[in-house]
Amino acid sequence: MKRLRHLPAVHQLQTDKRFLEALTINNLSKKILTTWIKEQIDFIRTQILNNTFLDEPFNKDHFTDLIFTKLNEKINTFKQNNLRSVINATGVILHTNLGRARLSKDAIIQITHTASTYSTLEYNVSTGKRGSRHDLVEEHLKELTGAEAAMVVNNNAAAVYLILRAIAYQQEVIVSRGELIEIGGSFRISEIMEESEAQLVDVGTANKTHLYDYERAITEDTALLMKVHKSNFKLVGFSDEVDTNNLLHLSKEHDVPIYEDLGSGTLFDFKQHKIGEEPTVQAKVNAGIDLISFSGDKLLGGPQAGIIIGKKALIDKLKSHQLARVLRVDKFTLAGLEATLKSYIRGQETKEIPTVRDIVESSEVVLDKANLFIEKMTHKKTQFTFEIKRDTAKIGGGTMPEVEIETYVVYVAHPLYTSEQLAEKLRNNQIPVIIRIKNEVAMLDFRTINEDELTILTEAFLEEDNEV
Q: pTM value?
């Protein structure tokens, strides 16, 4: 086609001053810029051949300008990281889609320091010989929980899999039907058990399981009695389950260990603040449970990890299993986790760990942040209107689903935007602002907004005003 003749050659574009400027200003290689230019030429060529290119005029200068416009868009997209910081204005503290727990300042410092230097990841300074990464946080976990031993894998799903594979391979694991849960990402206990090649023996019914159901199911092939804490839903009404303490007598009588998957898991007793009914890890250890696993990036407020604690003989078996290497964590996880655990040891979790702080923070503190935002906006010329209202926030992350925490939100309205349009515009801010919409009202929940984020939030609204 004649139009194709007007497409500039690659070598001609490489001599254009805009190409040379892009090389210098953006610190990009000639090779990658050339590749991106070829992509744009190919895209335009395809449109012309398919008769879908409607841009005019059809001459070399126009095509050249268009290619460099698209190249700049590509460069700007490349500069923006895919994993970006956002402002969480939803009020969901452990927002799975937004990365769950924010780390403490100490954890961030420790991770950064570990990343920039060599470290004692698997080196024993005292002996001058190879060490074990298990040792880096084990003593802290033992001190905090009272467990005999501990280890860490890359998440709690991995912990469940490792325990079932290492302790109950081709043997029976008894679990209540009412605890065969599914969590985010379609992770099902029954399916992970099948993958581990442990043999599932489900007892009771979906709403009721009795102690005799477990007792009748025990055979010489039973390797574990398994309890799964229902941290992401609550069963109410005509229902009953066997408390772990009652299972302990059965466990000792038949010499079958108990494993409890706590899911979220917490070292902090939120019940003392009248928040939920989540059992602490320490309480489970004190009850005498043989193995316990829980998440690092939920109520604990640390990095993603699957923490396993329990009897030393069982933990040693897990550590020596080949899967322990497959599922092991890296130095950054261990650095962040150690710093997080030290906050608990010092008794500073409500001050230093954002997750714990945000959950127990008084509604008055949340209101102060909302008022400060309103005050900042009243000094600016804006078409937005703001109104403070009482509301409730969720903990999120499949944790304490029945709990609603008192919070304060700011209703936001604009004469030209619907709530959905406003949400979209704020999402497209340089630092995305993720808001909540309820009953077609856009709102900002200040329980999950830090005071040091208020300036960024204010600028985001002013930027949207300027676009009108």
A: 0.90
